[in-house]
């Protein structure tokens, strides 16, 4: 009788975990604002680094391709290593929080250096780009893995954790749109500003103009100036928002550090034996093509679609300005479509999570994204051929971007649920290493998307260095129909196929419904028995 009463009381206490709110409102807001700042910094790299390397620095395409892929090989070592460090060490400031402060200045500095174009010969320029890119990836890992591990220790309530991740990822997405908005503004403002700077008698103005522009004949290319201004803004404002969360975030779920014990499975082996976690990782890798919707937008704007007047009737300066405005307008439209689809999905995620499980949401939205991408590809053929307006693609592009928002939220929540499963089954919770896997998948996805773009350049024989040596600006209409449609496929059928493939591993994912509820209740009981503190 007493045993029955004890079990009933225990069940009631553990059910409270599913209902109780642990995260304070200000703490919630500051964590989300930090996510916004982080999104600004990451978006500069993920959206524009391929364009900067290929069309501004004019680095060899093969070099850029190898850099992206080899850097990910290093990340395969670096990211898990960072996760292990987090899992094995707790400082007096906490397990995750110290990295928010210590990594903020280095990541801001490296973001600036990544988009700074030094006066070096081609070989030295490749060395510079390679070193800065790899260092940026390492420091970003040291900032990203602990930050997105925080929801695991901020609350033991999986529902509250899912909501926190959902809202924070939404803010992160908003932050990622800021550099895109700045790109449009720069495209509209810089042509006139650069013309005035060129005519200025001020030595400092002339020095700045000469450093960050390229003049070929009567045309001005100001891409260097555009990117350095965007990078500085995103780095400074992004880091301020990111680091401001430090005093407000609290680590409540205090799990003792795990030391390696001879004869016990290693941390990595526990990761590989956690089937739900592996399925989420495979899903993330297979869906890598979705990153092209953002990463390829500038490339498509440069070499697939032109919006503007007849270039053949324009002078050199007029032509340069018209091409620049077209690139800015088209890339912004693509970015806005991506943002609308992504943010729309993310805003509805809290409501969707209450009605459907993660598996249902992923399979449905990714299938929808594939259908929309297929329609974009069909309509896009006639758009590129000049028979239909580019604006007809907008609704299809928006729908195809819905999975971006869904996966941006759900993947992190599913990782957290998988770590609950691991702790429930083995007694070990590799929070840092599990989050590192998600960080690695994100970087791998962006690298594969960038690699896909570079491979497309090589496949169709598109060489920016040769073209831009003759003119400061090249229009999409200067290319053949085949080349233009091939570039357009980077935001249509290619990401669509990737989304469809990502649904395959979800067929075996089963951390849903009653099984997940059982894990939550029993895990709370096991934590209580082990004396794990939640405060």
Chart the SSEs and their pairings.
Blueprint (H helix, E strand, L loop, with lengths): L1 H18 L5 H32 L4 H28 L9 H5 L1 H11 L7 H33 L3 H42 L3 H10 L1 E3 L2 E3 L1 H21 L9 E2 L12 H7 L1 H12 L5 H4 L1 H7 L12 H40 L2 H27 L9 H7 L1 H25 L4 H30 L3 H7 L10 H8 L4 H10 L10 H18 L2 E2 L1
Antiparallel strand pairs: 1-2, 3-4
Helix pairs in contact: 1-22, 2-5, 2-7, 2-9, 3-6, 3-18, 5-6, 5-9, 6-18, 7-8, 7-9, 7-14, 7-17, 11-17, 11-18, 11-21, 13-14, 14-16, 14-17, 15-16, 15-17, 15-20, 15-21, 17-18, 17-22, 18-20
Task: Provide keyphrases for this structure.
Growth Hormone, Chain: A; 535 residues; 75% helix; 4 strands; mainly alpha; 22 helices; globular; two-stranded antiparallel ribbon
CATH classification, class level: Mainly Alpha
The SS-based structural class is: mainly alpha
- The oligomeric status of these chains comes to single chain
SS elements, strand count: 4
Question: Judging from the principal axes of the Cα atoms, what is the shape?
Answer: globular
User: From the coordinates shown, what is the CATH architecture?
Assistant: Up-down Bundle
What low-confidence regions span 5 or more consecutive residues with pLDDT below 50? none
**Which sheet architecture does the biggest sheet show?**
2 strands, antiparallel
Total count of helical runs of at least 4 residues: 22
């Amino acid at each position: 009788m007493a045993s029955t009463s004890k079990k009933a009381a225990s069940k009631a206490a553990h059910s409270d975990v599913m209902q109780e709110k642990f995260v304070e409102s200000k703490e919630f807001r500051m964590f989300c604002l930090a996510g916004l700042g982080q999104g600004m910094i990451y978006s500069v790299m993920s959206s524009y680094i391929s364009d900067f390397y290929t069309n501004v620095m004019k680095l060899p395409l093969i070099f850029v391709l190898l850099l992206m892929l080899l850097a990910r090989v290093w990340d395969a070592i670096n990211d898990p290593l960072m996760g292990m460090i987090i899992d094995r060490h707790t400082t007096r400031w906490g397990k995750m929080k110290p990295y928010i402060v210590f990594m903020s200045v280095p990541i801001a500095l490296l973001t600036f250096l990544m988009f700074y174009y030094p006066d070096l010969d081609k070989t030295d320029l490749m060395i510079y780009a390679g070193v800065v890119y790899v260092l940026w990836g390492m420091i970003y890992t040291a900032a990203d893995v602990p930050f997105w591990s925080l929801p695991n220790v901020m609350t033991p309530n999986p529902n509250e954790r899912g909501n926190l991740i959902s809202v924070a990822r939404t803010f992160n997405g908003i932050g990622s749109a800021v550099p895109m908005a700045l790109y449009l503004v720069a495209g509209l403002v810089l042509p006139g500003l650069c013309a005035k700077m060129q005519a200025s008698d001020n030595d400092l103005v002339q020095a700045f103009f000469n450093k960050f522009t390229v003049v070929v004949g009567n045309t001005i290319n100001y891409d260097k100036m555009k990117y350095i201004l965007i990078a500085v803004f995103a780095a400074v404002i992004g880091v301020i928002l990111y680091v401001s969360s430090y005093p407000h975030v609290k680590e409540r779920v205090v799990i003792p550090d795990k030391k390696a014990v001879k004869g016990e499975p290693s941390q990595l082996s526990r990761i590989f034996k956690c089937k739900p976690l592996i399925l989420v990782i495979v899903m993330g890798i297979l869906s890598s093509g979705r990153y092209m919707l953002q990463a390829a937008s500038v490339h498509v704007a440069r070499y697939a679609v032109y919006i503007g007047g007849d270039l053949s009737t324009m002078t050199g300066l007029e032509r340069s300005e018209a091409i620049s405005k077209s690139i800015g307008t088209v890339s912004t439209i693509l970015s806005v479509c991506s943002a609308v689809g992504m943010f729309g999905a993310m805003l509805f995620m809290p409501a969707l999570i209450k009605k459907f499980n993660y598996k249902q949401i992923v399979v449905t939205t990714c299938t929808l994204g594939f259908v929309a991408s297929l329609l974009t590809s069909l309509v896009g053929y006639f758009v590129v051929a000049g028979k239909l307006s580019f604006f007809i693609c907008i609704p299809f592009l928006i729908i195809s971007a819905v999975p971006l928002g869904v996966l941006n939220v759900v993947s992190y929540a599913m990782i957290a649920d998988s770590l609950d499963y691991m702790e429930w089954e083995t007694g070990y919770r590799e929070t840092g290493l599990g989050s590192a896997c998600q960080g690695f998948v994100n970087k791998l996805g962006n690298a594969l998307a960038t690699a896909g773009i570079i491979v497309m350049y090589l496949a169709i024989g598109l060489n920016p260095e040769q073209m831009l040596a003759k003119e400061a600006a090249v229009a999409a209409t200067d290319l053949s129909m085949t080349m233009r449609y091939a570039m357009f496929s980077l935001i249509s059928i290619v990401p669509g196929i990737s989304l469809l493939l990502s649904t395959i591993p979800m067929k075996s994912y089963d951390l849903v419904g009653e099984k997940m509820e059982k894990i939550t209740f029993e895990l709370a009981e096991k934590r209580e028995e082990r004396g794990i503190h939640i405060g």
